[in-house]
Predict the structure.
Amino acid sequence: MNDLLSRLKQFSVIVADTGDFDSIRKYQPRDTTTNPSLLLKAAQMPEYAALVEKALADAKKESPNTSQTLGTALDRLAVAFGLEILKIVPGRVSTEVDARLSFDVEASLAKARSLIGRYEKAGISRERILIKVASTWEGICAAKQLTREGIHCNLTLLFSFAQAVACAEAGVQLVSPFVGRILDWYKKSTGRDSYPPAEDPGVVSVTRIYNYYKKYGYKTEVMGASFRNVGEILELAGCDLLTISPTLLEEMQKTAGTLARKLNPETAAANCKEPKLSLEEKTFRWMLNEDQMATEKLSEGIRLFAADTLKLEKFIAPKVA
């Protein structure tokens, strides 16, 4: 095959950024990521009505006390979609901890353990689940503890080098630096309409993180996320994983062309000029604070995911009342 998607699969693991089963079947990714926004979209699609109804009926049986039913319903829904996705993909699914817990270590730990417990009860090994946690200091602390317990984490909403360093030091399984949202911020703050792919600030950020991890031998996987165009994706060919929306997957599948590998472990050390860092909490918070883009996008990302979780609650509330 000479389409761009087939060529990209030679260099990077392709992950589908969707909760739509048909899209996952079509593009045959190894893994799939979900988040509250994607679950909200999928839960409202007519073809998944039966899945949603069953998850909500089970939630009512499990938590007849109405104050707890909504939380149980959200978890059951996320896991129900995850279980269906795992029937299609050979690898892993990412399931997100409620963004409203992003600054609460203990609550994040409890939620992550509960989600893993639901998957294991359904017969799924924890090796196939990535628990998504926001890359706040508290989220990273929670992920460090979960990693010790054999629960693999995907640290999301990652916009800064400080976040990436702290995640690697915590030994987490995977980080998801957000390429497109970084580009959005720079376009808005500079007034520029576009950047060449190699100069795209999101691409530059992921390249820096990838090279640093490989130079210093960190096992944490780098998964570029939140892409705005195919150019960004191709510029990161060779990144450990790339999670891509169905729209961009389709565009690449329909486009013929050649593709050069841009990132690889062999050249990473030569390309990385960073000294090795060790971040305690106050240094992490200061470095993040000094990065205006990362501070704003992290805060905004948590708010947006929390808002979509609220919308999802509003959608299912009448059904579990």
